[in-house]
Amino acid sequence: MKKFYFLLILVALYTSCSKDESPADPNPDSSLVACFELSKEILMVGENLQINDCSVGASSYSYNLGNGETRTEKNPTVVYGKAGDYTIALTVSNTAMETKTFSQQVLVNDAVVEDFFIFPEVANGFNGIPLETGINPENGSIYYIKLLEDLEGTGGEKFYYTELDEDYMQSSNYIADKPYNSNSAFINFYPSGKMNFVFSRTLDGLYGTQEVNYNNSWSFLNGINSSTKLSYGYLEDGANYLYFGTEENGGIYQTAIETRNSTGDAFAVALNSFGDSDSMIGDMIKSGGGYIAFGAVFSKNDTNPKITDYKPLLVFFDSALNVTSHVIYEDSVLDTKISSANDLNGSYHLEELSNGNIAMYANGELILADASGTKVLSSYFEGTKNNQAMISLGDSFILSSDKNLRKFDNNGNQIKEFYYPGKYLPEILKVNGDLFFVAGYETEGEVKLLYGQTDTNLNPINLND
Fold first, then answer.
1. Which residue in 2, 80, 223, 242 has the most C-beta neighbors within 10 A?
2. 47 phi and psi, to 5 degrees?
3. Residue 83, Cβ neighbours under 10 Å: how many?
4. CA–CA distance, 178 with 200 (Å, rounded to integer)
5. Are the C-beta atoms of residues 403 and 419 closer than 8 Å to each other?
6. Is the whole-model pTM more than 0.90?
7. Who's near 408: CB < 8 A, 6+ residues apart?
8. Strand pairing category for 99-109 and 42-44
9. What domains does the chain contain, in order, with CATH numbers?
10. 3-state DSSP assignment of residue 314
11. pLDDT tens for residues 150-193?
12. Is the peptide bond before 130 cis (omega within 30 degrees of 0)?
């Protein structure tokens, strides 16, 4: 009977410290034991989970959290950004290079989104779609440009500029009516105080730009429209500004870089064609002594489909805006998905990472290339709207896709994911070391707005605290 009780005690001790210890232990006399305890086994999205080690004889720790994230701390605190069942596995080793593994499951339930986000009022019967987000250089306030669409009455579709104070209270100013399809916007704050608002616009196969200018007292200055060029953004270049996009020339749309002075007057434009195709630049950055631009080549047609043969384009320029090399990515999945001018009327993002790799993101497709433009990998996020964001953190980067923020290392490996209800998210801002965004989400057939914040590891931060 004593032997029977002794055996029961041994079994109980083994079970309490290891649910998954391998029965085929090559060294059964080893004192190494893998073990951890969880502060809770059922929790909410965004809630802290404390993992406390109870291993014996371990000198190193490696936790696999089951969501693509790994940790090497002895007692990590972790946060899950998406609901689901996750298996947390701990592998420990000792100085003799022995290893043991132990695992437990945790259930993560959907959190109430109101716990994390702020939902500014958008009246019933209206869509509120964010087109751009940034920091006002004059006063340091977060701003965003939104498109307000009246779905039921005669209010039409209008653009508004909104600033947020430190308590996220908003003040808005009307900018302009929307005369054409538009899903892209930006603003340039000139040194004179002039605010230059620029909206892409498309009809059935037609490109164009609408510009509206105000002074810093919100007095209207003037408006300028063009049916032959489209500007996607700008880049500061000393005392000048480089507006990049596309411009029609001889029946072909060419990549266009327009140089403007400090008052906004254009005095030069650099046009380039790539093969027999139309082409455009959606984003542009400085690199070394020159520039890198990201866009696309395509064929514009008079009949449906209006856009065919779409392929992403990467262009390298010297300091005088001469093309030094370019790459056309022939195997893009977007070749069969881009069919209208409206598909090009969205957000394009280009980032240079700390290891020299180049990340490009538009229309739901991520392309990672080396410093010469040779593709390393690509990913496509099905169902993603063409109004999405990407931000570089140096040795990693984050992008938005359909209802997810995703973090990657600079080799393109996804290391974290955070679920949120948004569908439209044009920019992610870094504010006081954290990430802030204004997104649009769909509810009952309408698009409403939310403000969200996470740390740089995509752990949500409660804006309602």
1. 80
2. -90, 140
3. 14
4. 10
5. yes
6. no
7. 359, 396, 397, 398, 399, 414, 415
8. parallel
9. 2-109 (2.60.40.10), 113-454 (2.120.10.10)
10. strand
11. 999 888 999 999 999 999 999 999 999 998 888 889 999 999 99
12. no
